[in-house]
């Protein structure tokens, strides 16, 4: 494995920003590719948290996404299903169920970001999670977790006992 060391060269702010964005894009692509291989599974909240932070932490609008998983909790597909505003997002259970059935998911992990940076789940977050869990449960699709992504923190519903 090649070790990369920080350079002492000075860059303009714009080029540094562009370089950071390129590195982030490459890291997302590498992580997604790794998770697409059949030996990568979402067996821990930390692995899921790392993946979702890369996807959602810098978004300026609230985004609700789903990780659709097979029966062994391997990633089938990551989908951003709903995009809202700076402080909310409408989530429609019917559309989530349709998307889960389309990819033949056995399990799902929900996630959304809070552009405010505060990862604390709201009452609305808890209610929609309960509605989605009920709807998917009728089809034997397990809801494993729901993550709320903030600036420097991530809250897992499963770890909090909310699922």
Q: What report would you give on this structure?
A:
By secondary structure, this protein is of the alpha+beta class. It has a 5-stranded mixed sheet, with helices on both faces. The longest helix has 24 residues. The model has no long low-confidence stretch (mean pLDDT 85). The protein is 40% helix and 21% strand. The protein contains 5 helices and 5 strands.
Summarize the helices and strands and which ones pair or pack.
Layout: H1 13-36, H2 45-56, E1 63-69, E2 75-83, H3 93-102, E3 107-113, H4 123-137, E4 142-149, E5 154-156, H5 157-160
Parallel strand pairs: 3-4
Antiparallel strand pairs: 1-2, 1-3, 4-5
Helix pairs in contact: 3-4
Provide a quick synopsis of the model.
Helix content is 40%, strand content 21%. By secondary structure, the protein is α+β, with helices and mostly antiparallel strands. It has a five-stranded mixed sheet with strand order 2-1-3-4-5, sandwiched between helices.
Features:
alpha+beta; 163 residues; five-stranded mixed β-sheet; 5 helices
Strand content: 15-25%
Please give the order of strands in the largest beta sheet.
2-1-3-4-5
Number of helices: 5
Order of helices and strands: HHEEHEHEEH
Q: Helix share of residues?
A: 25-40%
């Amino acid at each position: 494995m090649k070790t990369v060391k920080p350079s002492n060269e000075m860059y303009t702010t714009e080029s540094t920003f562009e370089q950071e964005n390129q590195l982030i894009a490459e890291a997302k692509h590498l992580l997604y590719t790794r998770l697409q291989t059949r030996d990568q599974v979402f067996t821990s909240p930390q692995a899921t948290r790392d993946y979702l932070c890369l996807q959602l932490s810098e978004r300026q609008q609230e985004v609700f996404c789903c990780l659709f998983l097979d029966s062994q909790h391997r990633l089938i597909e990551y989908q951003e299903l709903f995009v809202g505003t700076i402080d909310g997002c409408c989530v429609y259970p019917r559309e989530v169920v349709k998307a889960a059935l389309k990819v033949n998911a056995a399990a799902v992990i929900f996630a959304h970001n809070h552009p405010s940076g505060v990862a604390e789940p709201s009452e609305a977050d808890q209610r929609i999670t309960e509605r989605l869990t009920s709807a998917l449960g009728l089809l034997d699709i397990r809801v494993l977790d729901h993550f709320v992504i903030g600036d420097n923190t991530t809250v897992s519903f499963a770890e909090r006992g909310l699922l």
